[in-house]
Structure formats: C-alpha cells, structure tokens
Amino acid sequence: MALKVTSVLAVFAFAHAVEVQEVRAELSATARANATHAKKKRTARKGACDCLPWAGVYYDRLAACGRAQELYFLSKFGFSAAYAATEPISGLPHKVCNDFLKNLKDASCINVDLLPFPADDNTDKQWCYVSNDCDVLNGGEDATNTMGFQQAGWNNLQSVSNLSWKKVCDQASGDVILKYKTVEELIALAEANDVSKSRMMRLAYPVLNATWSEAMWIMEAIDNAWDGSTSLNDIVDSLTAPPATYGDRLPQVFSMVTDAVKSEIGTILDTPGHGDNFHVIKGREVWIVQRIGDVIVSGAHRGGSILGDMAYLGGHFSWEFDVNCTIGCATSRVAALDLETM
C-alpha cells in the first residue's frame, strides 16, 4: 500500500515538475519576445547613427564638453582638447559649453568651427554626437571606453570622447542641420531651450569675411529692386558689380554677398573681433543680432549695457540678445500673424 502511495506521489511530482518547466519555458519565450519587440521599437525609434541631444549627452556623462569639437575654434590654434574637460573653463569656452550646449535639448548638427577664420577643411561643416554603434562617421572619430578615455586624456594628450562623433552631418541621411533653418526657427529654438540667440546663429550659419558696412549697399539695392514678381536671382544678376578701380576688395565682397543671397542660406556678416553683435542675411532678408540695451553709433555697436549683463547673470540666456529684421522680412512677418485671433 505504501509503495502504491509513493508511486502515485512520484507521478504527481513528475507531472508538476513538467508543468512548472512548461510554464517557465512559456514565460521565458514571452520575455524574449517582449525584449525583442522592445529592442525593435528602440531601433526603429533611434538609429545608431542618429544625432543625440546635446544636453542629454553631457547630463548622462557620455561625453565631456571640449573633448570632441566643441572648442575647435581654440584647438585649431594649439589648445589641447585632451585637457579641456579638466581645466577651469571660463570666458567664451564657458559660454559655449556650460551656457549653451549643456542647455540645448536638441539633436541638431552644429558648426564644427564657431569662428571659422582663417578658413580650413572644417569650415561650413557640421557635427553631432552619435552612438558608439554607428559605423558611418563621415570623417568623425570612434569613441573609447571610460578607462581609455582617461588614459588618452592624461597620458597621450589625445583628444577622445566616450561617444563617437561624426564630422559631416548629411541632410540626405536624416540629420537635422541648423544652417538650413530660417532665422525665425533658430530664434524659436533658442527661446525654447533658453540659450543665447547670438550663439545659436554663430553655431548654425556660415560666416562671410565681410562687414555690414561693406554689404549694406548691395542689400539695399536688392530691396529697392524687389517687386514681388521678379525672381531673386534675376534681381541679383541685374546688379552691376563695382569696378576694381580702388583694389579688389569691393568686387570680392560683391561676389561673396551675392552668392550668399542666391543660396538663400542664412549667412553672418562678421564684425571686427568676431563679436556677438552682427548682421545676418538670408535671401533678401537682413536681420540684426544685438545685445539688449546696446546702442549703435556711426554703424558700430557700443556694448556694456546693464540690461544685457542682468539677463546673462540672471541665467536667462535667451533674453540677452534681440534678433530683429531690418530689410526684406515683411512677407514672412505677415504670414506669421494669426489673423483669426487678433
């Protein structure tokens, strides 16, 4: 009798064990399916070569600002980017890293060179951080692990980052490139992220080695000839280039400015010292970027305003500069009006 009871119990135990194994197998299969589905969703949502949001990269310590191309405007002259993240960053590097990029919750590509003078191979190229799994860096550099990052920074004087970065962003690959945005879009992006509008323009648009005083007559001539029916290219082509009677400078400026107008890509007209106040041309539009409270005397900016200082020191970086249209923007402004709610 005892033997029969033992046999029955053994059968039940075996059946229970089989049932438990089947349940575990089913749960394991479900878990694997869920994991695969989640991985596919992540992959579909974020490709390995998609640009990563700037602020998130630094917040998660996936890169240290200055180790890649953030401070190229200094490293091209010999500043060691390998030590950038270990030194006290002040002045313009502080404004680029701490005030701008670490607050920019956007994944758009920015200019490699903030101040592209003199021009080199990186001029007009834009870059961003990407996952270490990205195998199409377009001239960028592969990342290394944290220990390798530390060794490279301290021992080899080699500038490397925890994340890969790609030097040349490609619009055809889906990269969002700031230089193709309108001035209004850049203003909105700066305000949404509370970063400097002046720095936003500098990191988005190419720069001409020409001042507003040199280009003003060209833009005014285009505006005077605008009739709403003649194409912009035809108006530009109808302008007479200045002769080289007094040297090559005027013909050079004419060629640079008219080419920029025809491209209809936002372009900065530089100022002596490459300051934060400047003009932007985009097509026939002319915008002035000016620190709040600054005044203009005889065509030159006079800085040092208390209003601008207080906006910056108060941490409202998007308030520090105004960007206003001065020529050729009436159409875009009227289109932006909401006539139904006025």
UniProtKB/TrEMBL annotation:
Signal peptide start-end: 1-17
Keywords, sorted A to Z: Signal
Name of the protein in question: Phospholipase B-like
